[in-house]
Design goal:
Helix content is 86%, strand content 0%. By secondary structure, it is mainly alpha-helical. The relative contact order is 0.16.
């Protein structure tokens, strides 16, 4: 018995399906560049939007943490920690939603600064503890960069916010450009 059905290559099928939707990737690139340019032109509005979205995320994650903490499948200590962290998330989320723009800038800058600071400390500990590991020097370097950025954001929240928005705006513009180039590359690969 012979069969006319040939086995398909998963990679070829994936490239073909993405190639058919290259316009969506192109549209995503254009929208990403547009978001970056808009954030550069209106940094206060961009920061306000990010703060509001972050507040909504904190509220949602707070509710989920409380629900998980009240679940019967979790032991006592974890339940308490989940309910407490959920309550703190709800409180902080409501602050982000009801604060003035200046308070939102200060709160978000403080949060970002603390995250950068702790991430920098983690990188430093990993770098100094990873003797003989590849990339150890870069890990240590990025630890110092993260700590420096965190301390700057904490000590200068408004200047830090302006810097952060500018960097993120340019990141979006570069990412959007890469998405547009990628869309044309995928379209070209799908034709062959």
């Amino acid at each position: 018995m012979s069969s006319d059905v040939q086995a398909s290559d998963p990679l070829t099928d994936t490239v073909d399906s993405i190639g058919k939707s290259w316009l969506l990737v192109l549209l995503l690139g254009v929208l990403t560049i547009g978001a970056g340019i808009a954030a550069l032109n209106h940094p206060v509005s961009a920061y306000h939007t990010i703060a509001v979205l972050f507040g909504v995320w904190l509220i949602v994650s707070g509710v989920v943490s409380i629900i998980r903490g009240l679940g019967s499948h979790i032991d006592g200590g974890s339940r308490v920690l989940l309910v407490i962290s959920g309550g703190i998330s709800l409180y902080l989320g409501s602050l982000f939603l009801h604060a003035s723009i200046a308070e939102k800038v200060a709160l978000l800058s403080l949060y970002i600064g603390i995250v950068f600071l702790f991430r920098g400390i983690v990188d430093l500990v990993a770098g100094f503890g990873g003797k003989g590991q590849p990339g150890r020097g870069w890990t240590i370097f990025m630890g110092f960069v993260g700590m420096g950025a965190g301390l700057y954001m904490i000590n200068h929240p408004f200047a830090g916010a302006a810097t952060w928005i500018t960097v993120m705006s340019w990141f979006l513009i570069i990412l959007g450009t890469m998405e547009i180039v990628g869309a044309f590359q995928v379209r070209s690969a799908a034709k062959h």
